[in-house]
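Fold it.
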Amino acid sequence: MLKIVTVPNKLLSQETKPVKNFDKKLENIIKEMTETLNAQNDPPGVGLAANQVGLNLSLFITKPTEKSKIKVFVNPKIIRTVLDKDSPSKKKKSLVKFEGCLSIPRIWGPVKRANKILLRYQDETGKEYEKWFTGFEAVIIQHEVDHLQGIVFTQRSLEQKQKLYKENKKRELEEIKI
């Protein structure tokens, strides 16, 4: 199992390098990342970027629910996001959800994310895809793509003028005074 790196590790604030070799080594990295993500239970993780385990690679995996199958995203790029202003209807097209991060333990904060994204990526074999994702899965992907660009959710939360919260010993959230 791989060790999850935490802030202020430099890897978490640097843009990752593209994956060039789709080989046995990459297969092993994905296997170890899957093991690591599956082992997280306090709280359970829903995504894990390679730089969160000390690897400078443009790669992440997701697992939105406990029963979900792991999905692999290599060299991902968000092509399009659908936000409120892009929608002709009055229906809300963005989500503000409390986010946490395995690399920033016990800290939580709201982040506004697009409700729908178009993502171009490769799988573990190098095959290319371009696919729309919505809802919680879109939020996870945006969080992980941010990781690959050297951005952690607390930065997003603060730039959106949101408050951050720390979990205390009683597992209650207390506002962090900044």
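The chain is about 20% helix and 35% strand.
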